[in-house]
Design goal:
With 442 residues, the protein is mainly α. It contains 20 helices and 4 strands. The chain has one domain. Helices cover 61% and strands 3% of the residues. Strand 3 and strand 4 form a beta hairpin.
Length: 442
């Protein structure tokens, strides 16, 4: 409550114009629909998926759409409630206190943008989906698909979910398809058939956004080169960068995003094949695969994207929080790195964003360093996935030490020797099983 009260004050009082502009835009869309009957998606193309209207309507149901202040407070209340559910779910896991504490610290470090965007609604939903990945794959698939119809990013987790399922068509594809049918059918029934996919088509008009990873070379070059310009895209209300080669880069990233997702899928498929029978007999290995796979997909969506809004960093938080909650190894270093990325993001936006737009060296270089750190996270994640499963990757005292956590740390009991268990959770034995002959172990 204290964390969200602080972020609410920042967003609605201290930095309202700089950080909560999107929330007021949500209110105006809803107000136009309620007063004049003109709705995004149903009556015009929209940059968001159709189900985004649901969380936009929720604050209006409580506070109405006429008052900007009342709507903003109701929006913050909605995000607070969803985050509370996510924290409660994290606390039910072995490393729950570490995970919940990190999640709340991450929100503070990212700043008011952590609750002032649509991404703040789907992030806690992604936490619940990843926590349910192995125990309730159908629920998990339905949640990430529903999240994708609000903001596309959660949908990328469907790939590791499907690859980690014994019956992917029944447990993942079918629930995801059912959610898609429900959303699309509702939009079509309400008269929005022609705009149901407009959120994809609307992205084509974008240039290279100034905060995007792909814009980093021009961002730095612009510190001394007059050929690089920063400008406002009035139609989409985003700042973009222009210079020699920027349009080519934007076009390459448009196609590269699809290629990047496909390559990440191939990497995950190969890892599953490499792990063989261990993958299906050891829940710790599969759990790490799903969480790290979701993290990989989110990183690809950020790095290979011509858009680079500050709220995109929230896409990376759910896998990290779940990795910590499950006691999976190597996530503490990732969590520390992502916390630094979040802090740098808040410094840039909203506090000193004008410095970036004006080409001030300090803040510009900080943004560039933040982007380099995100690329480094992508590389490290791929390396971890490509590393064969062993005690250095999943479970066991050796892993704890590698992750900077002393074996036998209080509150995190070690697994028995030779077990694949993660921090005391039941798991399969490591190594080949002894053959059974005439009912006896040979």
């Amino acid at each position: 409550m204290l964390v969200h009260a602080w972020l609410t004050r920042l967003g609605t009082v201290e930095l309202r114009q700089d950080s909560f502009g999107d929330v007021d835009l949500y209110r105006r869309w809803v107000d136009a629909g309620l007063t004049s009957g003109w709705w995004p998606v149903l009556d015009e193309a929209w940059v968001y998926p159709p189900a985004a209207l649901v969380p936009l309507l929720a604050p209006a149901a409580v506070a109405g759409s006429a008052s900007p202040d009342a709507y903003a407070l109701a929006w913050c209340g909605l995000v607070t409630l969803l985050d509370a559910v996510a924290v409660a779910a994290l606390l039910r896991r072995p490393g729950g206190h570490v995970a919940a504490g990190w999640w709340l610290a991450f929100l503070v470090l990212l700043g008011p943008v952590a609750i002032g965007r649509l991404d703040s609604v789907v992030a806690p939903v992604s936490v619940l989906a990843l926590l349910a990945a192995l125990s309730a794959p159908r629920v998990s698939a339905a949640l990430v698909t529903a999240g994708a119809w609000v903001k596309v990013s959660p949908g990328a987790a469907i790939v590791p979910l499907a690859l980690a399922s014994r019956r992917p068509w029944r447990d993942v594809v079918a629930p995801a398809a059912a959610v898609c049918v429900l959303v699309v059918g509702t939009v079509v029934a309400l008269g929005g058939a022609r705009n149901v996919a407009s959120f994809v088509l609307e992205q084509g008009s974008r240039g290279l956004q100034i905060e995007s990873v792909g814009a980093t070379p021009w961002l730095v070059a612009g510190l001394w080169s007059p050929s690089v310009q920063r400008y406002l895209n009035g139609e989409l209300v985003t700042y973009e960068i222009a210079g020699p080669g920027t349009q080519t880069m934007a076009d390459v990233l448009g196609a590269g995003l699809v290629v990047g997702v496909l390559l990440a899928t191939v990497v995950l498929w190969w890892c599953r094949r490499r792990d063989g029978a261990t993958f299906w007999t050891d829940d710790a290995v599969r759990g790490d695969f799903v969480v790290r796979g979701a993290f990989l997909m989110a990183l690809v969506l950020i790095v290979a994207n011509k858009v680079g809004s500050p709220q995109f960093i929230t896409w990376l938080a759910p896998p990290v929080a779940v990795g910590l909650a499950l006691g999976l190894p190597w996530w503490r270093r990732t969590a520390a790195a992502l916390a630094g990325v979040a802090a740098a993001t808040q410094v840039v936006y909203p506090w000193w964003y004008d410095d970036v737009l004006q080409g001030v060296a300090g803040t510009t270089l900080l943004l560039a360093a933040r982007n380099v750190a995100v690329v480094a996270l992508l590389v490290v994640t791929v390396v971890h996935l490509l590393r064969p499963p062993s005690t250095a990757r999943v479970g066991g005292p050796a892993t704890d030490a590698a992750d900077g956590v002393p074996a036998g740390a209080p509150g995190e009991p070690d697994a028995p020797a030779g077990s694949r268990a993660v921090r005391g959770e039941p798991g399969e034995q490591v190594g080949p099983r002894a053959p059974v002959v005439d009912g006896r172990v040979g």
